[in-house]
Amino acid sequence: MTAMGTRPFFSVITACYNSAATLPDALASVQNQNGATTEHLIVDGGSTDGSLDVAAKVLPGEQIVSEPDDGIYDAMNKGIGRARGEVVAILNADDFYADADVLEDVQDVFSDKEVDVCYGDLCYVDYEDTDKVVRYWKSGEYKREKMYWGWMPPHPTFFVRKSVYERYGVFKLDMGSAADYELMLRFLVRHRLNARYIPKVLVKMRTGGVSNSTVGNRLKANHNDRKAWGVNGLKPYPWTLFLKPVRKIPQWWSRP
Q1: Cα–Cα distance for residue pair 244/47, rounded to 1 Å
Q2: I need a surface site. Which of 78, 98, 101, 177 has the fewest CB within 10 A?
Q3: 4 is a domain residue
Q4: Would 159 be classed as within a structural domain?
Q5: Maximum Cα–Cα distance for the chain, whole Å?
Q6: Domain boundaries, position 29
Q7: 219: phi then psi, degrees, rounded to nearest 5
Q8: Sign of torsion over alpha carbons 69, 74, 76, 79
Q9: Count of CB atoms within 10 A of residue 12's CB?
């Protein structure tokens, strides 16, 4: 979507592994964006299902890398390292932008040079019928203290200046499923970066995440969430990590 000799405003990073069934939607949603200059980087973990062929039909070879990795956050880190854009977006292979104006809306927010990160709302949709909303995550306006009450923005809608990653670091691979939560704690609570909320659905995400799929996974996620506070020298309230999953319950009946 942009000449390789010019710096794009956005670098959209898509980590994928055997995602041939859903990758076309992610690719199309980036290709169809209005206005904003964008490079789309595919970081593949060694797919064998034709994912690379799907990507190669749309993107030049220099925007596709395929090699073994240590999981999705390692792939995201590789993408961040390769990104040339001023702002980095993470769009998973099962996800897609909600409409053609998403990146233009985000670019308008980042025209304020004081903004370090921004985020919006998220819809979880049925894997097969992506018009069917399963859950709706309405984020709300940002206040730092809300994270002590179990609040967090949805990571698929989290846009970050490349300079922020360069200054404060990328995803910590030893955090497991809480790597995105730890990163947001580091940026928003520890370093008090300036965040802006866009009050609209930015991303639609197919259901099927693993962190909450069983009681055991939820307990492991809770352990990693607590660890995320500790590695940043922060102390949550006694109820913070209890409220974090509880706050998600209304998402099941709320709708945009």
Answers
A1: 34
A2: 101
A3: no
A4: yes
A5: 51
A6: 10-252
A7: -65, -40
A8: negative
A9: 29
State the Cα torsion 77-79-82-84 to the nearest 10°: -110
Query: Tens digit of pLDDT per residue, the chain (256 long)?
Result: 665 567 899 999 999 999 999 999 999 999 999 988 999 999 999 999 999 999 999 999 999 999 999 999 999 999 999 999 999 999 999 999 999 999 999 999 999 999 999 999 999 999 999 999 999 999 999 999 999 999 999 999 999 999 999 999 999 999 998 999 999 999 999 999 999 999 999 999 998 644 445 445 655 678 899 999 999 999 999 999 999 999 999 999 999 9
Q: Within a domain: residue 104?
A: yes
- Give burial (CB, 10 Å; 0-12/13-18/19+) of 55: buried
Q: H helices within 32-151, ranges in order?
A: 51-56, 72-82, 102-110
3 assigned to some structural domain: no
Question: Are the C-beta atoms of 118 and 174 separated by less than 8 Å?
Answer: no
pTM for the whole structure: 0.93
CA distances from 82 to 19, 76, 255 (A): 21, 10, 37
For residue 95, give both structure tokens: 């996800």
Looking at the 3D structure of the chain, how many domains does it have? 1
Length of the chain: 256
Residue 47's CATH number: 3.90.550.10
Whether 151 contacts 246, CB under 8 Å: no
What does the alpha-carbon distance between residue 175 and residue 171 come to, in Å, rounded to a whole number? 8
Q: Report how far residue 151's alpha carbon sits from residue 243's, in angstroms, rounded to the nearest whole number.
A: 8
* Apex 215 CA angle, 214 and 218, nearest 5: 90
d(CA 184, CA 165): 11
